[in-house]
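In the lab's daily routine, each protein ends up as an entry in a very long ledger. A line of letters takes care of the sequence, but it says nothing directly about the fold. The fold becomes a row of whole numbers, each drawn from a learned catalogue of backbone shapes. The protein below has been through that process, and both of its lines are reproduced in full:
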Amino acid sequence: MALSLGQKAGWGLADMGVVVFVVVKQLLVFAYLTSVLGVPVDVAGFATTAVLIFDMITDPLVGYLSDRTKTRWGRRAPWMVAGAVVLVAGMVGLFSTPEGLVGVAALPWVLGFFMIATLGFTMVAIPYGAMAGEVTQDPKERSAMTAWRMGFASVGILVGGALIPGIAAGSGYSVAALTVSPLIVGAIWLSVFATRRAPRIDTPSSISPVRMLSLVVSNRAFVLLAVLYGVMTLAIALITAGLPFAAIYLVADTGDTPLSGAAAALTVLSLMFAAFTVGSILSQAGWVFASARLGKVGALFVGLMAYVALLYGLYAVLPSVNVTIVAGMFVLAGMTNGSYQQIPWAIYPDLMDVTRAQTGEAIEGAFSAIWLFGQKAANAVAPLVLGLILNANGWVETTQGRVEQTAQAIDALHWAVTLVPAGILAVSAILLIAVYQPVARRVLHGA
């Protein structure tokens, strides 16, 4: 049965709420620890990465339990509804550190609530990703669903990257988190409501966790794609983690460019994210078209190589005193990032179909857990990598938002958010064509 427009768009809506938290996690947690609480950059990097250990337990557990859930509302909806509440409770608590609790002493508070928020995110994101493999088996419908998802995700990026930093700067991080909490919960709950009559698999899986894992791992094409997507995400997460510092130390607008007024009103960081989001929204239909003409893998390769070229261009432009030029570059960055956002999410449900067809087991939650773990691992490791790079080059932490840095430290930030991600994406693109594509052709042909 073909999905209605409302069901496709409704499925995509949930990602607006999910992405707000993802951007907050990538963009603000590391900066909050180092620039507000005064935690040393290397310690902050290790601390945020430590949450990954918690994810290693909760991700497969939620995937397994989601596959085995049986309710009148289906296997996925109850997890998403409850997870949205857990997510926002942890996020608000994370940024509500008691006054006077600074430095390393603040880590237990922040990390405790960070784990709660991460658990809520897992409860939403894994069942949500599993739905992509349940509601349709039509690859074209999945591309259309993913385009809707990316459109709503772009709005989430705009809110998380453009609105929240401005609120945080003016009213505090906890107020910013409270402000966007209704949006997160509302988007996820409305998505559940909009897809309540979409096709779904109600029969819970009865196989053991070990058997589930073995079936997922035996799908070699899926495992390769999950690893490559994690590597791509590491590059994007490095950029995101470094953007709050880049906005402060690499963009010093002179005040006489066309967008200087916007930068003053929104903050440079918010303007950059707004420009990035515009580019991402404009690109979505283009990447659906490119996927149809070039194939999903071919379109993703083109997008990744365009991203590499764009990052080299940013390296040449920065540091800059012209916020208009930088904003224009970020529009282009958003357009190239659209391929990374959209296409892998349209590919991996096709690979889940192979295992279901071969074994008869509907274990989309297990696939979703492995898929998201690679993304989470990259997001957790990126602040650690950035922190180690900056610390090795003499970066100075502060509780005042900005402090004078050495030329060596600024230079390290410059190449860490441009050339390093460009190199990672270039390697990912090569492996996508040379390693993943031949395996995927064999697996899908055998299906």
About this structure: The chain has a mean pLDDT of 84. The domain at 7-195+207-446 is CATH 1.20.1250.20 (Growth Hormone; Chain: A;).
